Amino acid sequence: MRFIIVDLEATCRESGMPREEMEIIEIGAVELLSPIAEPTREFSRFVRPTLNPELSAFCTQLTGISQRDVDRAEGFSTVFPAFLDWIGPEPYTLCSWGAYDLTQFLQDLARHGLTPPPAFNATRHLNLKKRFADKLGTRPLGMATALRHVGLPLLGRHHRGIDDAYNIAALARLIL
């Protein structure tokens, strides 16, 4: 079974933003060919937001994603099919740290009139945050805290989709 470890970044503001207004601005993902394999491939693309095309200073500071990055990016309706092409055919398990990423995908798919693939549903999605807490007997932990808990370094920039996907994959290899 292939595991697709995904991490999304989305528009945000320091004062908060209604959930329904958040939009994906980065899809980062890596593929594991087995539960113990090193990542074999990666997908990293910025996405141009449409509801709130101007990133807040907070969002840019948090993610390191610039206004120029998203202005030059293609829209979700183009990037998401490219992501599916990268994933390839089933079977695979979509995995993320928590339920946020799946929920955000479903929201953006609905916003753009796209049909979710079969693997993009709550019964097939693997919530690695929950799996980690269950396996290690902890409360649910953020990804960076979980890495510290098991003595792994945080690689790259936290809150960059592709860097976080690699970090989540390191945790997945311990718990799958």
Automatic annotation (TrEMBL):
<dbReference type="InterPro" id="IPR051274">
    <property type="entry name" value="3-5_Exoribonuclease"/>
</dbReference>
<dbReference type="GO" id="GO:0003676">
    <property type="term" value="F:nucleic acid binding"/>
</dbReference>
<keyword id="KW-0378">Hydrolase</keyword>
<keyword id="KW-0540">Nuclease</keyword>
<dbReference type="InterPro" id="IPR047201">
    <property type="entry name" value="ERI-1_3'hExo-like"/>
</dbReference>
<protein>
    <submittedName>
        <fullName>Inhibitor of KinA sporulation pathway (Predicted exonuclease)</fullName>
    </submittedName>
</protein>
<dbReference type="InterPro" id="IPR036397">
    <property type="entry name" value="RNaseH_sf"/>
</dbReference>
<keyword id="KW-0269">Exonuclease</keyword>
<feature type="domain" description="Exonuclease">
    <location>
        <begin position="2"/>
        <end position="176"/>
    </location>
</feature>
<dbReference type="Pfam" id="PF00929">
    <property type="entry name" value="RNase_T"/>
</dbReference>
<dbReference type="InterPro" id="IPR012337">
    <property type="entry name" value="RNaseH-like_sf"/>
</dbReference>
<dbReference type="InterPro" id="IPR013520">
    <property type="entry name" value="Ribonucl_H"/>
</dbReference>
<dbReference type="GO" id="GO:0000175">
    <property type="term" value="F:3'-5'-RNA exonuclease activity"/>
</dbReference>
